[in-house]
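Continuing the series of single-chain predictions for the mutant panel. This is the parent chain; the variants come on the following pages.
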Amino acid sequence: MATSKGTLECPYCEEILEVQSPDKLHIAFSTRKPIPTIYYGEIKVKKHKCQNPKCRKTITVYWYSPLEYFSRI
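Parent structure:
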């Protein structure tokens, strides 16, 4: 199983960014820290720089393992 990819919008300039999960267990992501009742295990934090040359701000992405994933296994 490969790692997950996703897209998100820069919260500062609305540029679309492609992000990739740190591993195959952390498949969900958010730009806000998720509440403990929706994920299993640890949160992995990755920093991304906006690709828009006029913005270039750092965006924090929180990767986690959603609980509903484990309830389906």
